[in-house]
User: What shape does this take?
Amino acid sequence: MLLPLEAAISLRYLRTRRASRFVSFISLVSLLGVAVGVAALIVVLSVMNGFEAELRDRLLSLTSHAVVTAPGGRLENWGPVLEEVLETPQVTGAAPYIEFQAMLAHEGSLKGALVRGVMPEREAEVSQVDQHLLAGRLTDLVPGSNRIVLGRLLAARLGVAPGDEVTLMIPLAGEGSARLVPRLRRFGVAGLFEVGMEEQDGTLALVHLQDAATARARPGEVSGIRLELADLFAAPAVSARLAARLGPGYEARDWTRENASYFRAVRIEKTMMTLILSLVVAVAAFNIVATLVMVVTDKRTEIAILRTMGLSPARVMRIFLIQGTAIGLVGTALGVLAGVPLALNVGTLMPGLEALFGLEVLPAEVYYITRLPSDLRWPQVGLVIVIALGLCLLSTIYPSVRASRTEPADALRYE
Assistant: This one.
């Protein structure tokens, strides 16, 4: 016998015998429950990670990693600031911008818009707008041409297409008056873009930096400088260093602050899904309690005989601890073996399942994301394994203690 006595007895109790088939069936159900719970937890967490990464990529496609601004959003002498920013470690690109709220009008349609003045020759350093253009080119925005590139949804709401003209209305304070006086400019639609986010496709409009400054009657002034970083997750640290380096007259913000509400919502959803699916594993683990209690009741006589042969209560307790842990180990291993391949291939498996059952999980007319993204992270897989094994181990304590307290005289009295 190569195994310790306690392990050998535990494995023997796990085997199916004619007199204990029901107990073995309950053990199998507990094992499969743990496997299903672990697999589901791995797949759901991976899909949630995928949605988080997809949301982050879409938000950052037209949004920079960090922004340097001045109080009031008015940066006048921005040339030296741009040079100093480009010398900062981790900064791979920088570009000035102008941003303001305005109204766009076309043949009776009036929509609010966020107008952003950009330098087309530098825009590729801080955004991916070129990759999302449906019509036109960013280089069509030349100084003095009064051309504009609109988000697809904004253009659809205005009823315009490339070649049409829109009226840009900017509310400005009148001289010597507290009233707002609208400033009107005609812009030709030079192109359309779509990134798959309502906030950008439905409100954002791009013009040349010089045209934006002229429209606001503030030549030579920008709202700030947008930055691209080598590591987007280092944005908070880089922003803090930049703010300290530039001094009190400047402010540095990063993408985690600008889009905090989005990612906070995703984190809350991920946490809640983890808790809910952990309950599935917990239910399966607590089935182990019922299994072991039935085994202890069924093997009460054998436990008493082992006690009379000199087996200590601690060793009896280890027998059932090993049995419950073995069920948890096998169930967790099966769950990982099933969950990891599913998480890695959920994007390719889902179209086949949709065709098989005639369903459409993410219809294109409702969702921008039409496929299930997945991002398997091994630290999360390790966390799932720890949770499952911890719950299974906890479930073995009560039956094991109960078995160790079996009194041989009471168990063998009527045998």
